[in-house]
Specification:
CATH topology of the largest domain: Creatine Kinase, Chain A, domain 2
CATH superfamily of the largest domain: Glutamine synthetase/guanido kinase, catalytic domain
Mean pLDDT: 96
Order of helices and strands: EEEEEHEHEEHEEHHHEEHEH
Radius of gyration: 20 Å
CATH class of the largest domain: Alpha Beta
Number of helices: 8
Largest sheet: 8 strands, mixed
CATH architecture of the largest domain: 2-Layer Sandwich
Strand content: 25-35%
Structural class: alpha+beta
Number of domains: 2
Number of strands: 13
Bound molecules: magnesium ion
Amino acid sequence: MSETKIYEYVWLDGYQPEPSIRSKIKTTTDDTPPEWSFDGSSTQQAEGASSDCLLLPVNTYDCPLFADYLVMCQVETGEHETHPSNTRAAAEKILSDEWWFGFEQEYFFTNKDGSPLGWEDGTPRPQGDYYCGVGADNVQGREISEAHLEACIDAGIELTGTNAEVALGQWEYQCFGKGVKAGDDLWISRYLLYKIAEDFGVGVNLHPKPKSGDWNGSGMHTNFSNEEMRTNGSENLFTSMCEKLGEVHEEGIANYGSDNDQRLTGLHETQNISEFSYGISDRGASIRIPIYTLEHDWNGYLEDRRPASNADPYKIIAHIVGTLT
Ligand code: MG
């Protein structure tokens, strides 16, 4: 008899404007995770009278935590049709593995009352010392960030780095992936972040501007390239791509996360949400052309600086690739 395996199924619910992550465990002797179902009436994905929704596994990861495997799923209706909440399906249709993405996921750790970690006793000293800082006065939650980094690597997700961010209790990690799996990996990395922080009694806040005033918001700068950009680029190729994305700026913003107007103000290394611009090395632009790309004779990548920390990566990559192909 084969051994019993513990699969943790992970999926996105029907909440708006951004989905939340849900998970539940199935034990089975099956060597691969089978299709499964859940109560969609509890996740805003179905009515109570016809509540079954289906979970279709799309990627399986080694689980560094309790379960043996993490199973990223997409949701179908009880009639085996693509569920309206399934943003992955649209991305998968147009994505190929020649498209590479590097997401810079920023977020805040929070106490149970919702205040950022380190803000229990009131407003901390102004920004300045916290970015890539060291020392108990300057950093909060490092042990969680490090446990998360290790867990993602153990799961086979390419986290390429992490750093303390500009505000106290704020962090970033960079998550690299190819094709639609880049979106799967980012969602699973978020799942692991929530789960590991939960073990520390700490929350995670993905809102793009949890603290108003002179505090940086959280974004998810999205670096991207395709084969031509990496190996056969030119100034014209890169600027024409920026122009194309600029022509559909409003559509992009609609796909790049809610409440992003609170973050894209023109301050704190952002371009104003109502304007579009691009520039070499320009962190005040909507899209930055990295110096790396210039120094490699216009072979490299672009950085879309508009996506918010709470954005759905499937929507981001579908917008970029849909616009440029
Ligand atoms: Mg950052």
